[in-house]
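Design review, sub-item: ligand-bound model
Attendees: FS, YL, KQ
YL presented the inputs for the nicotinamide-adenine-dinucleotide complex:
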Amino acid sequence: MDAPAKIAVVGTGYVGLTTGACFAHLGHQVVCVDIDIDKVQRLSVGDVPIFEAGLAELVEEGLNTGRLAFVANTGVGVRDADFVYLCVPTPPSTDREGNADSSAGLVDLRALESAAREVGLHVRAGAVVVNKSTVPVGSARLVAKAMGRSDVTVVSNPEFLREGSAVSDFLFPDRVVIGATDRGAAQRVAKLHQRSAAPTIITDPATAETSKYAANAFLATKLSFVNTIAAVCEAVGANVADVLSVLGHDKRIGSECLTPGPGWGGSCFPKDTQALVRMAADAGYDYSLLRGVLAANDEQFNRVVNKVAAVVDLARATIAMLGLAFKAGTDDTRNSPALAIAERLLAAGARVQAYDPAVTRVEGTNIALARDAYAACEGAEVLLVVTEWDEFKTLDVAQLAGVMSALNVVDARNIMDAEALLRHGFDYQCIGRG
Ligand SMILES: NC(=O)c1ccc[n+]([C@@H]2O[C@H](COP(=O)([O-])OP(=O)(O)OC[C@H]3O[C@@H](n4cnc5c(N)ncnc54)[C@H](O)[C@@H]3O)[C@@H](O)[C@H]2O)c1
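KQ shared the predicted structure:
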C-alpha cells in the first residue's frame, strides 16, 4: 500500500461508520466525527450502536491499532485530514409541522450544508472533500459554496453499499464512481480504492450524483416489476418462483433482486426514487415510469394487507408480524414495509404483535413487541412474515399451531415451509401463487 492517508469521516451512521472502519482496516489513519455526542462516546469504547455484520470487529480492530478515533468536534476531526468524507443524512424535506413531505421528493440538505460549513472552517488547504451522501444534482456545488474555500476540492463519490453487507460492499464494491471537475483530486480518491480492483468511473459531479439515483431507481423498478408479475401469477394461476427462475437465467436480466416480497423500503429506495421523480420534474421531465414503480409498491403493501383481511376480520384480529427491519441482516426500520403494513393493519383495528431478531424497539406506533416468534404468535389468528430472517424459515410448525388461536399464515417473503404448514392444518398464502 502507498503511504496511509489521513482521513476524516463526518457522520458515523451506516455509511460513515462503515467508511471509517474500513479505511482504518485498510491501513489509513481515520478520525470519525459525529454531532451525536452519546454515539461518539459509545463508539470510542467500541460499542457499535447499529447491527451490521463484521462492523463491530473492524471498529474494535481500528481502536486497538490506534488507526480509528471518534470525536464530536468537527474542527478537531478534520484539521489534519487529506480527505474529508461527508456521510451525513439527506432525508426527505419536512413541512412546517415537521412531517416528512416525502411525496414531494424534496431532499433536506441542511445536515450536508451544516457539515460542509464546519469543515470549511477547519480543513487544511489542499484537502479533498468527498461527498458520499446521496444528493440531488448540483450538491457538489452546494458543498463547495457552504465551505467557502477555493483551496479545497469537492469530489462526489456516491456510496452503493447495502445494509446487511455494508462492510464487504465497501471493501469489494461492484464499482467506484467519482465525480469531479478536478481530475487530479478524482485520481487521489480513486487511489484509496485501488486495492479493491473495482472498475472506477471518473466523471463529472452531475453524472456521479445522477448515477446513484439511477441505480436505486433501477433496483426499485426491478423489485416493483417482480411484485407486479407476482400479482399477475396469482391472477392467472402461474407459479412466480418458476417464472422468475426463467427470467433470472437470462443474462440480460440477471437473478439478483428477483424475489417477490411485501414491497420494498429502507432508508434509501423510497426517498431516492421520490427525489429522482422530483429532480426530473423540476428539470421538465415527467418520470411517469418511476411514479408507476412507486405506486406499484404502495399497492403491494395493500395486497399484503388484503391477504390478511381475506382470512380474518381486521377490526378484531390479532396479527403476529414476523420481522420489522426493512430486510434481513439489519436493524434498520426506516421506511420498512413492515411498518407500512402494520400501520394499515392497526388503522383497520387489528392488534399487531411483532418480533424481529435485530429490532428491540419501534417508536411512534402501537405495535406490541414480543420476545420471540412464538411469543408474537400467542393468541394470534394470522402469522404474517414480512422480513426474510433465516430463523423464520425453520420455526417449529407444531409449536406455532399450539399457540395460535387460528391457523393462518401469510408469508410475504415466500420463505416458510408451506408443506409442513399445510400438513398441520394451516391456511397458507404467499406472494405470487394462487
Ligand atoms: N444507509 C444506506 O444503506 C446508504 C447507502 C448508500 C448511501 N446512503 C446515503 O448516505 C447518507 C448517510 O446515510 P446513513 O444511512 O449512513 O445515515 P445515518 O442516519 O445512519 O447516519 C448519519 C449520521 O450523521 C450524523 N450527522 C448528522 N448531521 C451531522 C453533522 N452536521 N456533522 C456530523 N455528523 C452529523 C448523525 O448523527 C448520524 O450519526 C445518506 O445520504 C444516505 O442516503 C445510505
